[in-house]
Amino acid sequence: MTWSFLLTTLIVVASPGTGVLYTLAVALTRGSRASVAAAFGCTLGIVPQMIAAMLGLAAILHTSALAFAVLKWGGVVYLLYMSWQALRERGALSVDTELRPRSNGRVIVTAILINLLNPKLSIFFLAFLPQFIAADEAHPLTRMVELSGVFMAMTFVVFAVYGVFAASVRDRVITRPQVMAWLRRSFAAGFALLGAKLAFAER
Length: 203
Known about the structure:
Homoserine/homoserine lactone efflux protein; LeuE-type; transmembrane; cell membrane; membrane
């Protein structure tokens, strides 16, 4: 495990994206416990992408225009749906003012889908991780699992920190309707912009 891999992974994980945006939105609407659930779901969503890269499915996405387009447009539609939900305060992004105990299953499933419907993540694994595997590595798949595990661990920790920090200022936010309205529009715009960015993504 090299410092260059750890530093690069940290930069990639901490950079604002759909997972970070969703975790922050959940933290501000439902609190710290739900934000950790969102971080966990985003981390679980990496597993299928990691397996796809190992099985060569990511290479198919990279070479097949149809396969890439199907997954890409599925992701675009889902992000626009998230944008609409943020504006309407529905689903996993609805504000829970009393923080009543309730299942975080919907939060986790939504977080998984966000990563699952992002074809660029599969290609990222195909292009990123092999750079840190030596050409003479005796067990390249084992090494890839190890690197992927570190990537997932850092994803969970960084996202959870984002979420817990956002949840710590939650009480100051939800008591101000104007701030909440501004945040809803900001999150909706963020999901819409990420959807637009994905729509114009090339293989």
